[in-house]
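User: I'll paste a sequence; please echo it back and then give the predicted structure.

Assistant: Echoing your sequence first, then the prediction.
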Amino acid sequence: MSAGSVAVVVTEEMHVPSWDLYELSIPCTVFGKPQPDLAEPWYDLRLCGTGEPGQDPGTPASGAIGLSLHTRHGLADLAGADTVIVPSVPDACVDEGRPLPPELITALRHAYDSGARMVSLCTGAFALAEAGILDGRRATAHWLHTAQLASRYPKVRVDDSVLYVDDGDVLTSAGLTAGLDLCLHLVRRDLGAHVANQLARRMVVPAHRPGGQAQFIDQPIPATDDRGLAPVLDWARERLDEPLTVEDLAQQAAMSPRTLYRRLQAATGVTPLQWLLNQRIRRAQSLLESTDLPVSRIGELSGLGTANNLRHHFLKQIGVSPSDYRRAFPLA
Protein backbone atom coordinates (compact mmCIF):
# COMPACT_ATOMS: atom_id res chain seq x y z
CA MET A 1 0.00 0.00 0.00
CA SER A 2 1.32 3.42 -0.94
CA ALA A 3 0.20 7.04 -0.78
CA GLY A 4 1.97 8.44 -3.84
CA SER A 5 1.70 11.91 -5.36
CA VAL A 6 -1.50 13.88 -5.89
CA ALA A 7 -1.78 16.78 -8.35
CA VAL A 8 -4.82 19.03 -7.86
CA VAL A 9 -5.87 21.18 -10.81
CA VAL A 10 -6.76 24.81 -10.06
CA THR A 11 -8.76 25.83 -13.13
CA GLU A 12 -9.39 29.44 -12.15
CA GLU A 13 -6.59 31.19 -10.34
CA MET A 14 -7.97 34.71 -10.68
CA HIS A 15 -11.06 35.67 -8.71
CA VAL A 16 -11.91 32.16 -7.59
CA PRO A 17 -15.58 32.08 -6.49
CA SER A 18 -15.89 31.45 -2.78
CA TRP A 19 -18.24 28.50 -3.34
CA ASP A 20 -15.56 26.67 -5.37
CA LEU A 21 -13.12 26.83 -2.49
CA TYR A 22 -14.90 24.00 -0.70
CA GLU A 23 -14.15 21.39 -3.37
CA LEU A 24 -10.59 22.71 -3.68
CA SER A 25 -10.03 22.53 0.08
CA ILE A 26 -11.14 18.88 0.32
CA PRO A 27 -8.12 17.27 -1.41
CA CYS A 28 -5.84 19.82 0.25
CA THR A 29 -7.13 18.75 3.67
CA VAL A 30 -7.14 15.01 3.01
CA PHE A 31 -3.89 14.68 1.07
CA GLY A 32 -1.94 17.81 1.98
CA LYS A 33 -1.53 17.54 5.76
CA PRO A 34 1.09 14.95 6.79
CA GLN A 35 -0.13 12.22 9.12
CA PRO A 36 3.15 10.56 10.18
CA ASP A 37 1.52 8.42 12.85
CA LEU A 38 -0.89 6.94 10.29
CA ALA A 39 1.38 6.50 7.27
CA GLU A 40 4.90 7.59 6.43
CA PRO A 41 5.41 8.94 3.88
CA TRP A 42 2.07 10.64 3.45
CA TYR A 43 0.84 11.94 0.09
CA ASP A 44 2.94 14.40 -1.90
CA LEU A 45 0.44 17.14 -2.83
CA ARG A 46 0.92 19.77 -5.51
CA LEU A 47 -1.51 22.46 -6.68
CA CYS A 48 -1.26 22.98 -10.43
CA GLY A 49 -2.75 26.14 -11.92
CA THR A 50 -3.78 26.73 -15.50
CA GLY A 51 -1.64 29.89 -15.62
CA GLU A 52 2.11 30.18 -15.66
CA PRO A 53 3.77 28.88 -12.47
CA GLY A 54 4.62 31.69 -10.12
CA GLN A 55 2.63 34.22 -12.13
CA ASP A 56 1.08 36.99 -10.03
CA PRO A 57 -2.69 36.51 -10.38
CA GLY A 58 -3.23 40.21 -9.90
CA THR A 59 -5.64 42.13 -7.75
CA PRO A 60 -9.36 41.27 -7.92
CA ALA A 61 -11.50 44.02 -9.38
CA SER A 62 -13.35 46.24 -6.95
CA GLY A 63 -16.45 44.51 -5.70
CA ALA A 64 -15.43 41.09 -7.08
CA ILE A 65 -16.53 38.12 -5.02
CA GLY A 66 -13.81 35.55 -4.50
CA LEU A 67 -10.10 35.15 -3.97
CA SER A 68 -6.97 34.99 -6.08
CA LEU A 69 -4.67 31.99 -5.76
CA HIS A 70 -0.95 31.79 -6.37
CA THR A 71 0.18 28.28 -7.34
CA ARG A 72 3.78 27.07 -7.47
CA HIS A 73 3.06 24.47 -10.14
CA GLY A 74 1.60 24.59 -13.63
CA LEU A 75 -0.13 22.07 -15.87
CA ALA A 76 3.19 20.55 -16.87
CA ASP A 77 3.48 19.31 -13.28
CA LEU A 78 0.49 17.01 -13.76
CA ALA A 79 2.90 14.72 -15.58
CA GLY A 80 4.26 12.01 -13.34
CA ALA A 81 1.60 12.36 -10.63
CA ASP A 82 0.06 9.13 -9.40
CA THR A 83 -3.34 10.78 -8.97
CA VAL A 84 -4.76 13.85 -10.72
CA ILE A 85 -7.81 15.56 -9.18
CA VAL A 86 -10.00 18.20 -10.85
CA PRO A 87 -12.14 19.67 -8.04
CA SER A 88 -14.26 21.94 -10.25
CA VAL A 89 -14.33 24.01 -13.42
CA PRO A 90 -15.48 27.65 -13.80
CA ASP A 91 -19.24 28.13 -13.71
CA ALA A 92 -19.17 29.73 -17.16
CA CYS A 93 -17.81 26.48 -18.61
CA VAL A 94 -20.79 24.58 -17.20
CA ASP A 95 -23.67 27.03 -17.51
CA GLU A 96 -22.65 29.07 -20.55
CA GLY A 97 -20.61 26.54 -22.49
CA ARG A 98 -17.39 28.54 -22.33
CA PRO A 99 -14.57 26.31 -23.62
CA LEU A 100 -12.16 24.90 -21.11
CA PRO A 101 -8.51 25.85 -21.70
CA PRO A 102 -7.21 23.52 -24.44
CA GLU A 103 -3.89 23.25 -22.63
CA LEU A 104 -5.75 21.84 -19.61
CA ILE A 105 -7.49 19.19 -21.71
CA THR A 106 -4.20 18.22 -23.34
CA ALA A 107 -2.47 17.97 -19.95
CA LEU A 108 -5.28 15.82 -18.50
CA ARG A 109 -5.19 13.48 -21.49
CA HIS A 110 -1.42 13.19 -21.27
CA ALA A 111 -1.59 12.40 -17.53
CA TYR A 112 -4.21 9.72 -18.17
CA ASP A 113 -2.25 8.18 -21.03
CA SER A 114 0.79 8.12 -18.74
CA GLY A 115 -1.05 5.97 -16.20
CA ALA A 116 -2.31 8.51 -13.66
CA ARG A 117 -5.46 7.78 -11.68
CA MET A 118 -7.95 10.47 -12.72
CA VAL A 119 -10.44 11.93 -10.26
CA SER A 120 -13.10 14.63 -10.47
CA LEU A 121 -15.17 16.27 -7.77
CA CYS A 122 -18.46 17.94 -8.68
CA THR A 123 -18.13 19.88 -11.97
CA GLY A 124 -14.58 18.64 -12.48
CA ALA A 125 -16.26 15.82 -14.41
CA PHE A 126 -16.77 18.26 -17.30
CA ALA A 127 -12.99 18.52 -17.72
CA LEU A 128 -12.50 14.75 -17.70
CA ALA A 129 -15.38 14.36 -20.16
CA GLU A 130 -13.96 17.04 -22.47
CA ALA A 131 -10.67 15.14 -22.48
CA GLY A 132 -12.52 11.97 -23.53
CA ILE A 133 -11.48 10.19 -20.34
CA LEU A 134 -15.09 9.43 -19.37
CA ASP A 135 -16.16 8.07 -22.77
CA GLY A 136 -17.97 4.76 -22.30
CA ARG A 137 -17.65 5.00 -18.53
CA ARG A 138 -20.20 5.43 -15.77
CA ALA A 139 -19.67 8.76 -14.02
CA THR A 140 -21.42 11.27 -11.80
CA ALA A 141 -21.41 14.92 -10.74
CA HIS A 142 -23.63 17.11 -8.58
CA TRP A 143 -27.22 16.29 -9.50
CA LEU A 144 -27.82 19.93 -10.48
CA HIS A 145 -25.33 19.49 -13.34
CA THR A 146 -25.75 15.87 -14.42
CA ALA A 147 -28.36 16.67 -17.10
CA GLN A 148 -25.95 19.14 -18.72
CA LEU A 149 -23.11 16.65 -18.45
CA ALA A 150 -25.18 13.91 -20.13
CA SER A 151 -26.42 16.25 -22.87
CA ARG A 152 -23.02 17.67 -23.70
CA TYR A 153 -21.15 14.36 -23.54
CA PRO A 154 -23.48 11.59 -24.76
CA LYS A 155 -20.70 8.99 -24.68
CA VAL A 156 -20.61 9.27 -20.87
CA ARG A 157 -22.99 7.04 -18.88
CA VAL A 158 -24.07 9.65 -16.35
CA ASP A 159 -25.56 8.44 -13.06
CA ASP A 160 -27.16 11.24 -11.04
CA SER A 161 -28.24 9.01 -8.15
CA VAL A 162 -24.95 8.18 -6.43
CA LEU A 163 -22.37 9.90 -4.24
CA TYR A 164 -19.41 8.73 -6.28
CA VAL A 165 -18.36 6.22 -8.91
CA ASP A 166 -15.18 4.16 -8.62
CA ASP A 167 -14.32 2.85 -12.10
CA GLY A 168 -10.83 1.70 -11.19
CA ASP A 169 -8.43 4.24 -12.66
CA VAL A 170 -11.13 6.90 -13.12
CA LEU A 171 -13.30 8.13 -10.24
CA THR A 172 -15.97 10.84 -10.14
CA SER A 173 -18.07 12.28 -7.34
CA ALA A 174 -21.06 14.47 -6.74
CA GLY A 175 -20.52 17.88 -5.17
CA LEU A 176 -19.73 19.18 -1.71
CA THR A 177 -19.48 16.45 0.96
CA ALA A 178 -19.60 13.68 -1.66
CA GLY A 179 -16.16 14.89 -2.74
CA LEU A 180 -14.92 14.29 0.79
CA ASP A 181 -16.44 10.81 0.72
CA LEU A 182 -14.53 10.05 -2.47
CA CYS A 183 -11.22 11.38 -1.16
CA LEU A 184 -11.53 9.25 1.98
CA HIS A 185 -12.40 6.33 -0.27
CA LEU A 186 -9.10 6.91 -2.10
CA VAL A 187 -7.23 6.85 1.21
CA ARG A 188 -9.03 3.60 2.06
CA ARG A 189 -7.94 2.13 -1.29
CA ASP A 190 -4.36 3.33 -0.93
CA LEU A 191 -3.62 2.90 2.77
CA GLY A 192 -6.36 0.69 4.18
CA ALA A 193 -9.49 1.01 6.28
CA HIS A 194 -7.72 1.73 9.56
CA VAL A 195 -5.89 4.78 8.20
CA ALA A 196 -9.01 6.09 6.46
CA ASN A 197 -11.12 5.61 9.57
CA GLN A 198 -8.62 7.39 11.81
CA LEU A 199 -8.30 10.27 9.35
CA ALA A 200 -12.09 10.61 9.16
CA ARG A 201 -12.27 10.61 12.95
CA ARG A 202 -9.78 13.50 13.07
CA MET A 203 -11.90 15.36 10.51
CA VAL A 204 -15.06 14.59 12.53
CA VAL A 205 -16.85 13.06 9.54
CA PRO A 206 -18.33 9.61 8.85
CA ALA A 207 -15.57 7.12 8.11
CA HIS A 208 -17.25 5.67 5.05
CA ARG A 209 -20.36 6.24 2.98
CA PRO A 210 -20.74 3.74 0.13
CA GLY A 211 -20.53 5.37 -3.29
CA GLY A 212 -23.88 3.89 -4.29
CA GLN A 213 -25.71 5.80 -1.57
CA ALA A 214 -28.18 8.32 -2.99
CA GLN A 215 -27.07 11.94 -3.39
CA PHE A 216 -30.22 13.13 -1.68
CA ILE A 217 -33.19 11.70 0.19
CA ASP A 218 -36.83 12.74 0.22
CA GLN A 219 -36.78 13.73 3.88
CA PRO A 220 -35.05 17.02 4.72
CA ILE A 221 -31.61 16.63 6.25
CA PRO A 222 -31.67 17.62 9.94
CA ALA A 223 -29.95 20.86 10.87
CA THR A 224 -27.83 19.00 13.44
CA ASP A 225 -26.86 15.40 14.04
CA ASP A 226 -28.97 13.38 16.45
CA ARG A 227 -26.30 13.11 19.12
CA GLY A 228 -28.71 11.20 21.36
CA LEU A 229 -28.23 8.18 19.11
CA ALA A 230 -24.46 8.04 19.52
CA PRO A 231 -24.45 5.76 22.61
CA VAL A 232 -26.74 3.15 21.07
CA LEU A 233 -24.82 3.19 17.77
CA ASP A 234 -21.53 2.72 19.64
CA TRP A 235 -23.18 -0.10 21.60
CA ALA A 236 -24.26 -1.77 18.37
CA ARG A 237 -20.81 -1.45 16.76
CA GLU A 238 -19.34 -3.40 19.69
CA ARG A 239 -21.83 -6.24 19.10
CA LEU A 240 -21.90 -6.61 15.33
CA ASP A 241 -21.23 -10.34 15.67
CA GLU A 242 -24.53 -10.73 17.53
CA PRO A 243 -27.97 -11.08 15.85
CA LEU A 244 -29.10 -7.50 16.51
CA THR A 245 -32.61 -6.33 15.61
CA VAL A 246 -34.34 -2.96 15.50
CA GLU A 247 -36.06 -3.97 18.72
CA ASP A 248 -32.68 -4.58 20.39
CA LEU A 249 -31.44 -1.13 19.39
CA ALA A 250 -34.70 0.50 20.49
CA GLN A 251 -34.57 -1.20 23.88
CA GLN A 252 -30.97 -0.09 24.41
CA ALA A 253 -31.93 3.47 23.42
CA ALA A 254 -34.98 3.42 25.71
CA MET A 255 -37.38 4.32 22.90
CA SER A 256 -39.97 2.55 20.81
CA PRO A 257 -38.86 0.72 17.66
CA ARG A 258 -40.87 3.17 15.55
CA THR A 259 -39.15 6.17 17.16
CA LEU A 260 -35.72 4.55 16.81
CA TYR A 261 -36.42 3.80 13.15
CA ARG A 262 -37.55 7.35 12.42
CA ARG A 263 -34.70 9.08 14.26
CA LEU A 264 -31.93 6.86 12.88
CA GLN A 265 -33.15 7.20 9.31
CA ALA A 266 -33.43 10.97 9.71
CA ALA A 267 -29.89 11.16 11.11
CA THR A 268 -28.14 8.78 8.71
CA GLY A 269 -30.34 8.63 5.61
CA VAL A 270 -30.68 4.83 5.85
CA THR A 271 -32.88 2.40 7.77
CA PRO A 272 -31.58 0.75 10.97
CA LEU A 273 -31.12 -2.60 9.21
CA GLN A 274 -29.24 -0.97 6.33
CA TRP A 275 -27.08 0.89 8.87
CA LEU A 276 -26.25 -2.42 10.57
CA LEU A 277 -25.40 -4.01 7.22
CA ASN A 278 -23.12 -1.08 6.32
CA GLN A 279 -21.31 -1.40 9.66
CA ARG A 280 -20.88 -5.15 9.20
CA ILE A 281 -19.47 -4.68 5.71
CA ARG A 282 -17.06 -2.10 7.11
CA ARG A 283 -15.99 -4.52 9.87
CA ALA A 284 -15.44 -7.24 7.28
CA GLN A 285 -13.32 -4.86 5.18
CA SER A 286 -11.13 -4.04 8.15
CA LEU A 287 -10.65 -7.72 9.04
CA LEU A 288 -9.85 -8.64 5.43
CA GLU A 289 -7.24 -5.89 5.30
CA SER A 290 -5.60 -6.47 8.67
CA THR A 291 -5.84 -10.24 9.38
CA ASP A 292 -5.37 -13.59 7.65
CA LEU A 293 -8.52 -15.04 9.20
CA PRO A 294 -10.54 -17.32 6.91
CA VAL A 295 -13.50 -15.73 5.15
CA SER A 296 -15.90 -17.94 7.11
CA ARG A 297 -14.54 -16.60 10.43
CA ILE A 298 -14.71 -13.00 9.18
CA GLY A 299 -18.35 -13.60 8.27
CA GLU A 300 -19.01 -14.65 11.85
CA LEU A 301 -17.09 -11.79 13.49
CA SER A 302 -18.74 -9.17 11.29
CA GLY A 303 -22.22 -10.53 11.90
CA LEU A 304 -22.76 -11.48 8.26
CA GLY A 305 -22.94 -15.18 9.06
CA THR A 306 -21.68 -17.74 6.60
CA ALA A 307 -18.93 -17.24 4.03
CA ASN A 308 -21.54 -17.41 1.27
CA ASN A 309 -23.61 -14.68 2.92
CA LEU A 310 -20.51 -12.51 3.31
CA ARG A 311 -19.65 -12.99 -0.38
CA HIS A 312 -23.19 -12.11 -1.42
CA HIS A 313 -23.29 -8.82 0.48
CA PHE A 314 -19.68 -7.96 -0.33
CA LEU A 315 -20.21 -8.40 -4.06
CA LYS A 316 -23.43 -6.39 -3.92
CA GLN A 317 -22.00 -3.45 -1.95
CA ILE A 318 -18.29 -3.41 -2.77
CA GLY A 319 -18.36 -4.91 -6.25
CA VAL A 320 -15.66 -7.54 -5.69
CA SER A 321 -15.43 -10.80 -3.77
CA PRO A 322 -13.86 -10.84 -0.27
CA SER A 323 -10.89 -12.80 -1.63
CA ASP A 324 -10.25 -10.31 -4.44
CA TYR A 325 -10.59 -7.44 -1.97
CA ARG A 326 -8.07 -9.06 0.39
CA ARG A 327 -5.51 -9.44 -2.41
CA ALA A 328 -5.45 -5.65 -2.76
CA PHE A 329 -4.25 -5.32 0.86
CA PRO A 330 -1.41 -7.81 1.37
CA LEU A 331 -0.17 -8.12 4.94
CA ALA A 332 3.38 -6.93 5.59
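DSSP finds 14 helices and nine strands in the chain. The two ends are 10 Å apart (CA to CA).
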